[in-house]
Write a structure and sequence with these properties.
Layout (H helix, E strand, L loop, with lengths): L3 H40 L7 H17 L5 H13 L12 H8 L4 H14 L3 H9 L2 H6 L4 H8 L31 H10 L1 H8 L3 E12 L2 E11 L15
Antiparallel strand pairs: 1-2
């Protein structure tokens, strides 16, 4: 019996997650269909420039009292923008929820938007993770050491990265470590903060990283060294060690 319990738990968790994803995507499709109705009605508004805004206000007045804040004028306007940016239903990703699409709608640059879509789907980002990556300018930081074409190809899986610069951000933003702003830190404080926030740190590093060891002992030319943090990148197939301070 002990052997079957973990398997049943896994089935339950998988079914729950699948049900949640299904509900979330149905919500995405609902707002997509609403956006289509609004835009089509707006385009038939007899040439009046203000017809679209009047329509959205009227719809919100009718729908919000009955269905709640999810149908406010602001949300209905986002639905209209959503359909305008993503007119094809089969181009929508079931891995993304409505909150994530709301973040994406606000991005004016199509390349940037496509980049974040690819990364969010590929890395299974949560809404919080997607929001943080957008707010910390993940795309722009990669462009500082790469050309746009290469960044987009790697994000879409059309190219296997051959250079660490193609997936590692420069500079890094580590506000999630919760450290006070100082010009320098003790090694143990920085290392401890990274370990405590390891999932966020791996996300900030880039694609394909996994944590291997802490204070890894290596023997070179008859001497022992300790590498603070060791990571492996499955895309680059190498160990880009992060040495906060090499201890002899």
């Amino acid at each position: 019996m002990k052997n079957i319990v973990p398997e049943i738990r896994q089935i339950i968790e998988q079914s729950r997650n699948k049900a949640i994803r299904s509900v979330n995507f149905e919500r995405v499709l609902m707002y997509h269909r609403i956006g289509a109705k609004i835009l089509n009605e707006e385009q038939g508004g007899k040439g009046r420039a203000d017809y679209g805004q009047e329509l959205i206000k009227s719809l919100a007045k009718e729908l919000q009292p009955e269905y709640g804040s999810g149908f406010s004028a602001r949300i209905l306007e986002l639905s209209r923008q959503f359909y305008k940016l993503f007119p094809k239903t089969n181009a929508l990703h079931s891995q993304l929820n409505w909150t994530q699409y709301r973040f994406l709608i606000r991005l004016d640059d199509e390349d940037k938007r496509n980049f974040y879509i690819s990364e969010a789907v590929k890395n299974n980002w949560s809404s919080r993770q997607l929001e943080r990556q957008i707010n910390s300018n993940f795309f722009e930081r990669l462009l500082m050491s790469n050309d746009k074409k290469s960044v987009l190809e790697v994000a879409k899986g059309e190219k296997i990265p051959s250079d660490p610069k193609e997936i590692i951000k420069d500079p890094m933003v580590l506000e999630f470590l919760g450290l006070e702003q100082k010009s320098a830190y003790y090694e143990k404080d920085l290392e401890g903060a990274i370990i405590s926030h390891l999932q966020d740190f791996l996300l900030e590093l880039g694609n394909g990283f996994s944590f291997v060891a802490r204070q890894k002992r290596i023997h070179l030319d008859g001497d022992d060294f300790f590498v603070d943090l060791v990571f492996y990148n499955r895309l680059l197939q190498c160990f880009p060690w992060f040495v906060l301070l090499v201890l002899y």
